[in-house]
Amino acid sequence: LVFFEGTYDTPGASHVGLYVGDGMMISAGDPIKYSNIHSSYWDKHLLGFGRIPK
């Protein structure tokens, strides 16, 4: 999971993407997009990465 902040007027993580490899993620916005996490928009909002424990 890729966490972003500052994409909405809310404290902390405001958006989560699903990392799929090669710097790309699936972003469940409207519409759902296949996006590069290093684009100028996402790069400035990057908060961190995480995973769901097994």
From TrEMBL:
Q: Would you kindly state one Gene Ontology biological process term found in this protein's UniProt entry?
A: proteolysis
Sorted alphabetically, which Gene3D superfamilies does this protein's record hold?
Answer: endopeptidase domain like (from Nostoc punctiforme)
Query: Family assignment?
Result: Belongs to the peptidase C40 family.
Q: What is this protein called?
A: C40 family peptidase
Annotated ranges, domain NlpC/P60: 1-50
Record key words, sorted:
Hydrolase, Protease, Thiol protease
Q: Which GO terms describe its molecular function?
A: cysteine-type peptidase activity
